[in-house]
Automatic annotation (TrEMBL):
Name of the featured protein: Thiol reductant ABC exporter subunit CydC
Record's subcellular location: Cell membrane
Primary gene name: cydC
PROSITE patterns: ABC_TM1F, ABC_TRANSPORTER_1, ABC_TRANSPORTER_2
Entries under InterPro entries matching the protein: AAA+_ATPase, ABC1_TM_dom, ABC1_TM_sf, ABC_CydC/D, ABC_transporter-like_ATP-bd, ABC_transporter-like_CS, P-loop_NTPase, Type_1_exporter
Keywords, in A-Z order: ATP-binding, Membrane, Nucleotide-binding, Transmembrane, Transmembrane helix
The UniProt record lists the keyword DNA damage: no
UniProt KW Glycoprotein keyword: no
All residue ranges annotated as the ABC transporter domain in the record: 333-562
Alphabetical list of CDD domains matching this protein: ABC_6TM_CydC, ABCC_MRP_Like
Amino acid sequence: MSELTHVLKLTLREKRDVSLAIVFGVLAGLASVALLASSGYLISKAALTGQMTVLIVIGACLKLFGLGSAVSRYSERLFSHRATFTMLGNLRVSFFERLSPLAPELYSKYRSGDLLARIIGDVESLQNFLLRVFYPPVVLLLVFMGTILFTVYFSIYTAILLAIGYLLTAVAVPAYFAWRKRRRDWRTRESRGALSAEAAEFLYGFRDLKIHRQLAGKEQQISDLIDFYNEEQRNEGKEEVYSQSMNGFIALVISLAILASGAYFTAAGELDGLFLAMLVMISLGVFENMAPMAAFPSHFEESRKAAVRLDSIVDEMPRVKGSSDLPEGGLSISSRNLSYVFPDEQRPALDDVSIDLPRGSKTAIVGPSGSGKSTLLAVLMDILPARSGQVLINSANSEKFSQESIWQSLNVVLQENHFFQGTLRSNLKIADSKANDDQLAAALERVELGRFSLEMDVEEKGQNFSGGEKQRLAIARAILKKGEVWMLDEPVSSVDSATGQLIYERLFNDYPEQTFIIVSHDLTGLEKMDQIIVLENGKLMEKGSYDELMRSKGYFYGLKEIEQQVMA
């Protein structure tokens, strides 16, 4: 139950609606019992006496109890569902507040389909917590207590039998099936997450699977996951049916026992026969309210596992970030003994890297594939947290500044840039919502895309653009951002050399006082850079200007020699 503590706290925020739902639920339950009890009494009274006044009064009570049951049931549904929807809203807000500080690293731990299944499916599963887990036991306890106290006046033995029935159907049977469910460890939620992950990967990689003739194998894998998921659902459904059958059987046995004991005590003269039918009908009426307890074990385990799966995403302590804003004006960035290791990896992506990026400088970060260039850029821009060492902004630890303040000062172009379905205008305005059409068109002109209309449709992930066009659109978006530091990760790797060099020259000429940090595998054109940082296997091999590195004939000189041999 400790796994559901957070969900319980969020539920109890809506004290008024939860309390009203319980009150009306108890009234509805007692009214339905009173309705059947009055019916039983009316039958006996009509058979044993001809007093019309009494019969009319009892008939009026029947109508009253029927109306009260309907109104109470409606009110109970209204307040319980309103509390549930509010709780779900609070849960989503709470979950995303805890999730957002960890978001940059999530995709290194979880597959996108599995994340989607947890964020949507598991949150939706918790809608049953109030309606099927927290609420029914409380209402049933109060209904049974009221019923038992009423029957004590007529027959202590009937009250004892009802108490035994309550303990069996509301406690023993649900506890047994909850134990069975946990022991068998059905993995419905996990199988749903695996199916979502594989389905998402199938859609993303459909073209490659088709080209390499592996489509059938992937389809069979997904088909097997679907079968496994369906089997898990069937097993859970069977358990619920077994639980319902067990509860129904116990309720029938208790009702028959009440009938038998009532008949015995009536024959013995210890119970007025006028009340026998009423007591039996009370038993039938009160056990009608027991139906939700049959589904209690399933919903309890489902809610518990959903809470565990959600908490497993956000169980890490979020980074403690400051709230200060960056100072206005140019920025200098440095790193001191910076290291980073991806989760579940042994090899460090960065290992004791110390660099200085002065205000207004132009720096190139180069090295072979997998050397840690993109990781260094991600740590510098505060997307990934440093595992050790520190990043300094204007000689102050970056941890004292808010992420929003840091990102506001950056013009970023990554290797993969997301484009949303919509128009070219809407995608460019992500960088500056106040930019007018002339400013948007000017940004496109600077990246040689002036022929594009702002009304042009953009498909999901920008799939109707080429790789080079998407890179240039990302640069246009960065131009509109108006930040002070440019962080560019292979920004023109898919653009022809002439256009790429032209874009670089325009950026350097348009923003001569701003800081540029460029990750590149291309070693041409680096003569214009103020400094070059060379990485290999996450380590800083050397740094300096182009001329200094070439004169030292070190690691960078060797890379240039290899490039020239390949190009020859």
